[in-house]
Amino acid sequence: MDDIVEVLKTAGESTRLRLLALLSRGDLTVTDLTDILGQSQPRISRHLKLLAEAVLIERYQEGAWAYFRLAHEGEAVALARLLLERIDVADPVFARDAERLAVLKKARAEKAQAYFSRNASEWDELRRLHVSEAEVEAALLKLIGDGPVDAFLDLGTGTGRILQLFEGLYRRGVGVDASRDMLAVARANLDRAGITKASIRHGDIFNLPLERDEFDVVTIHQVLHFLDDPAAAIAEAARMLRPSGRLVIIDLAPHALEHLRDDHAHLRLGFSHQAMGEWLEQAGLAVEQTVDLTPAGGGDDALTVTIWLARDQRSADAAEDAQPLIAIGRRN
Fold it and tell me: Nearest-5° angle of CA 181, CA 251, CA 266?
């Protein structure tokens, strides 16, 4: 009873209830919230501190910015969600907050689209060298099936496409990328798709700002060929997996297009099945399936895309009755 009363006391204040309603719709900074609510930064920060202490919201750092969002799970936030469901969206105060949030998200989307447009020609050039994105996604959908998973992590999330593609499978999704420009693109895309159960984080793929053994799904797609030490990235991805979790890596097969080093910053010209298998084994994973996707009628410049599916082996003997879990990988 005491816990319920404390949650009600914390949420039962007009500004804090407005903050909860806004943060249930996505990740926002203190500056975003002050602009929407028209209140001072110290006042907003104090309310956020109280909400965080009640485990109703989560805070994470992205460079100099701190982002906040509604907590994913817990008894406290479950009760808060019931309160939020009772909000009348036609109420003048909440309606005004929603309008200001929409304006903020529109500005985000325009800024992200400007960055995306500046780089679109380069990405389109690369896509023409290998099979279409639609073919890769179809192969992933067939490989994964429709079995639900609890926690889904997309490393090198890029535009956030994988978080959108598999939104129906996971209860909680996280996308991590080292580029703040790409994070803006991903956030704008998730906002546009109305996906609130996935969050975007800035992070180093070699030292992720996340807890180990936290995810059923870890994803890496078209990222490893940019890295000097792919094996270390795979080991870090494996560290994120829960026992019996699965990892799918999508990247290029070995090729001889040297110009990709200079023109597109590729450090590795693809990966062989043997090399990838050894790295996965060193990380405690066992390869279960590989799929090669080669462009139809491709010439010397055609690139083969390979999918490697591997499973965490720590509880393989005890996992016969466990629900299968899949991890996918991609960068857009």
Answer: 60
Under 8 Å between Cβ of 184 and 112? yes
Give the residues across from 67 on adjacent strands: 29, 60
**Closest by Cα among 91, 101, 204 to 155:** 204
Three-class SS of residue 80? helix
pTM for the complete prediction? 0.72
Quote the mean pLDDT of the chain: 85
Instruction: Give me 39's structure tokens.
Output: 């209140």
What's the half-sphere exposure (Cβ side, CA atoms, 13 Å) at 324?
9
**Regarding beta strands 198-202 and 170-177, do their DSSP bridges make them parallel or antiparallel, or are they unpaired?**
parallel
Q: Mind giving me the DSSP string for 185-205? A: HHHHHHHHHT--SEEEEE-BT
Render pLDDT for 152-162 as a digit per residue (tens, 0 to 9). 999 999 889 99
d(CA 57, CA 69): 6
Q: Which helix (H) or strand (E) holds 53?
A: helix 41-53
- Judged by DSSP in three states, 154 sits in strand
- For the chain, the farthest-separated pair of C-alpha atoms sits apart, in whole angstroms, at 70
Q: DSSP secondary-structure letter at 314? A: T
Q: Is 80 exceeded by the pLDDT of residue 322?
A: no
pLDDT at 299 over 80: no
139-155 pLDDT per residue, tens: 988 887 788 999 999 99
Return the bridge partners of 285, or none. Answer: 312
CA torsion 109→114→118→122, rounded to 10°?
A: 10
Place of tokens 């975003």: 32
Tokens of 188: 């704008």
Output the six-digit token pair for 193: 């798709």
Hey, what are 77's tokens?
């936030």
Integer CA distances (angstroms), 240 to 24, 207, 245, 271, in order = 25, 11, 9, 22
